[in-house]
Amino acid sequence: xxxxxxxxxxxxxxxxxxxxxxxxxxxxxxxxxxxxxxxxxxxxxxxxxxxxxxxxxxxxxxxxxxxxxxxxxxxxxxxxxxxxxxxxxxxxxxxxxxxxxxxxxxxxxxxxxxxxxxxxxxxxxxxxxxxxxxxxxxxxxxxxxxxxxxxxxxxxxxxxxxxxxxxxxxxxxxxxxxxxxxxxxxxxxxxxxxxxxxxxxxxxxxxxxxxxxxxxxxxxxxxxxxxxxxxxxxxxxxxxxxxxxxxxxxxxxxxxxxxxxxxxxxxxxxxxxxxxxxxxxxxxxxxxxxxxxxxxxxxxxxxxxxxxxxxxxxxxxxxxxxxxxxxxxxxxxxxxxxxxxxxxxxxxxxxxxxxxxxxxxxxxxxxxxxxxxxxxxxxxxxxxxxxxxxxxxxxxxxxxxxxxxxxxxxxxxxxxxxxxxxxxxxxxxxxxxxxxxxxxxxxxxxxxxxxxxxxxxxxxxxxxxxxxxxxxxxxxxxxxxxxxxxxxxxxxxxxxxxxxxxxxxxxxxxxxxxxxxxxxxxxxxxxxxxxxxxxxxxxxxxxxxxxxxxxxxxxxxxxxxxxxxxxxxxxxxxxxxxxxxxxxxxxxxxxxxxxxxxxxxxxxxxxxxxxxxxxxxxxxxxxxxxxxxxxxxxxxxxxxxxxxxxxxxxxxxxxxxxxxxxxxxxxxxxxxxxxxxxxxxxxxxxxxxxxxxxxxxxxxxxxxxxxxxxxxxxxxxxxxxxxxxxxxxxxxxxxxxxxxxxxxxxxxx
Length: 749
Hints:
Number of helices: 25
Region (Disordered): 137-157, 491-519
Radius of gyration: 28 Å
InterPro entries: Kinase-like_dom_sf, Pkinase_fungal
Organism: Trichoderma citrinoviride
Distance between the termini: 33 Å
Domain Fungal-type protein kinase: 263-627
Largest sheet: 8 strands, mixed
Shape: globular
Protein name: Fungal-type protein kinase domain-containing protein
């Protein structure tokens, strides 16, 4: 479409329906963030949301064009650029802004598309125009393959990040991996309603197994041959099978920890043709790898990296099936919230029936067999749960599409909180929490006790259920000794070794609580709103500590929600009581670190103490994180710092290193380097942050003091007073900002 003649040919194509799709997508995003569905709201979108809208638009325009149009290739190149280069997002904002109104100017849309294509078509010294415009004749999709080097990073930096992610993933599964589980195949592949169909498939294919070898595979099949064989095997399946194997096509940023030169497979429901289907983490039911990697440890860790990402996008999932095929050796695994386990490797030639039944079983399994979430129900595009209301009647709660929080981990409590509302209401006034706690009903007991003691600023428990537990999911199988990894064999850079955890009983539980019209903290719509939410969450913490005689111990951006102060008296409230400790049961054991790593206090990282003062320190780190990490997302620009000062808060060799990084950042002179990363729009919050730093980290005996004052009201009072002063001064500016925004919206209408 760099040729004006090509542009004139497509300019007359009707794209009304295509632009309605973009408009609808924009409205959905606005609703999920409680923003008015007006063009000015686009300025509050994160870069990734702009990226998604731009991709939706370009894909829709691509499909609207005749298959013979030369412009299709140009759009494919442009779509790929938007997906792979975050810097291109800013250039696409005018195009997206032109496409989102209810009645857009189609001529303007085409002009802006032509402008973008012309821009990317300009030749560079190393890349001629013809090369830039070459593209396959198919709908633009997310590129295949492993992560490329990100903007501003060298290949060495990318490898370092990959090594770190693999190391952290390994530490999760190191002490809870079982590789010789008895009864595994009987538990997952015997006695199912699809078992006979899998056997029928084996009967059809066994003629291809001659002299103990699958003839079309060869003795030690390579990745390409195995792929062709799997395609052929699927041709023998009945059409009514709802799933199939697909080549993984995932966004680059979602494949941390995964090495290059791999061929990855997944099982997902059928929808469209394999050649044009884009795979998303939320759609995957089974993950697999065809690999030439001979080291057991590397194979498993890389598979675990995939499992970790999948659990992140399917946080309420019970367990996950996974497999690797290396030559003629196959390994089958199940990952759950207590680790990973499998029956050991087997040879696909020596065990032909098992091979076919496993590969077919992954396609034929029901949602229950696959470990999918069967508690949440689906009604069209709406997910919902049923709870027992007052009087015993059943009530339906519709879930918000976007969770309040979730944690990137395999072995964990896997806490996931989702906003919910009654089906006949527009207000998301409930929080539904799913987790795998270690203790029996601890959170239920503490929430009830906090309510009895008059604690303010926390959610109220409505209902709770036990859905399943690890023992039930692992029933019928015998677990021997944990697998012992040989760290000297793989050559992977592991920084530290976590002690093997005791095998514990985790139960998946659901809690439903009142939380009037709320949003997660990181989705604040203005710095003022973020500030008042944190201030009121500190008030809630003070009430919990002084009235409830309890310590929260997990202050993070995920455990603070923004609420309507007119309804609750609080602009921010605390959630997640899994780690709360009662003060009358004695001091908290400092050896047991709790919290979210980047918000942990210095003395918690060093296992010295965990008191109310450490929680207040965590609130301070949350504030800095909102100003820097979330702040740059809020303004829609990239942090110009090559390496953020906050990077060392979650990426270091040990807890001790993280503590030293934070203590260095809190030094008066070095703290200016942290404040230097604030976007210009957050400049007004720097004085508050300096004040809070001096309150929390005074100098005593010539050194930074991180200890706990004996009178808690002194520290609470000083911190809240500092917040109140800034909030009071900012109120007038906020009213002025609101008038300007309303004027813009009125003019747009």
